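Entry 12.
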Amino acid sequence: MQGRYICAEEQVVTIDLQATIPPNHLVRRVAKVVDLSFIYELTQDLYCENNGRPSVDPVLFFRMQLIGYLFGITSDRRLCEEVQLNLAYRWFCQVQCPKDVPDHSSFSRIRDRFGVERCQAIFDRLLEQLRAQGIARGLRVMVDATLVEANASINSLEERPMSEPHARALKKYEQRYHDFKEGKKKRQVSNHTHVSSSDPDATLVSRPGTYRKLYYKAHYTLDAESRVILDCHLTTGAQHECTVMPERLTQLLDEEHWPIEEVSADKAYGRGPTYAFLRQHEIRAYIPLHIEHLGEGQLSRRDFVFDRKRDRYRCPQNHYLYPYEKLDHRSIKRYRMLGGHCRQCPPSMSCLPEKHRHRARFVYRSPHQDEIDRIKKRQVTPHFKRKLSERQWKAEGVFGEAKGWHGLRRAKYRGHAKMQIQVYLTAITQNLKRLVGRVCDFLWLPLGSISHLLSFQAPCFGHVTTRDL
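Predicted 3D structure (tokens):
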């Protein structure tokens, strides 16, 4: 017999929200391990105690933000619609069915009121829980960065006023300025000559095989064992990674007191100052060289022996090369053969390139040459290559997760401060998933309060440190 369901629209139905959510749903697993009551104390100074209308609950606002980042909802308007309709989202945000969710127009004001400081404090508070339970140990870390497309079009670029110091900073633009002014050459678009009118903090980035766009850059420092994000920082897209890493590691070492013993990164960080910084802090580096001939210049110096005491090089024919001049702001030395020995040397045809056969042989030496030479020996070992392979799938996987599932592929907001908030919330969401995965998947804790989590002591995994060669 054919059944037919009759819907009585005028009937009032009482719904038990908790009973409608599956036991393994993500929001139920997150609610099991997270306690956000500390947000009331954290934001208490932002509100008047005895005057004005009651504000939107700050915990409710943050719970809704977590829903948006957990499920990749990048629009505040759509987030409010989803929480209004989805029973699981309502249960997590603790909004009863007859009650409406806050309007999306209030989210921008609340976000500005919270600011970067409150979001950083929430990130640090969650990280303290992960550290207290032994999930994040901070002995081995991985450093990486990724570009985040800005919420601004390249068509918004406008020429900088000539009064700005960055407008004609480079010498080549000074030389060509007259030609650009007279219309003889086409004006080149760069960060020194143009700025976005929509988002002045975003910068132009161009990479081989891609179109030039406006970007920010997110820098992550991960715990290698648990993939927990220990630090997240935002810069302009044109900021190079190797200039940011020393500052962020110094903060983790001095202010957060993480016992970092080992750092892994890709070859973008493989430069002399990076190795010198890590050596100074007694941190073992697994970072390949940016270029194979780093510290050598155009001519290889593998067969030349350096006499450290007399500050000179000895060539295979037992002739000496002496310091000739300093390059790169007087930091890189160039050693040159004196006395005309190269003109009478039999192997000069193979020692000098064709365009320099009438000159003397010279070699370069970086002030960090000792660190570079150590890395050259270590980066070909199987142990070093295993570290690089581990970094590739862990660090790149974290950024792939952030971009594919949590909305970090493109900026939701404009301006450095608001974009830093987006990076913090994305990192908080990813760390919550690590906490949920470790606690729920392996311990199978029953539903209850946060006391189940606080009484848990995570096992400590073995850690092997390989000493310097």
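Annotation: Residues 167-175, 441-469 have pLDDT under 50 and may be disordered. The first strand starts at residue 140 and ends at 149.
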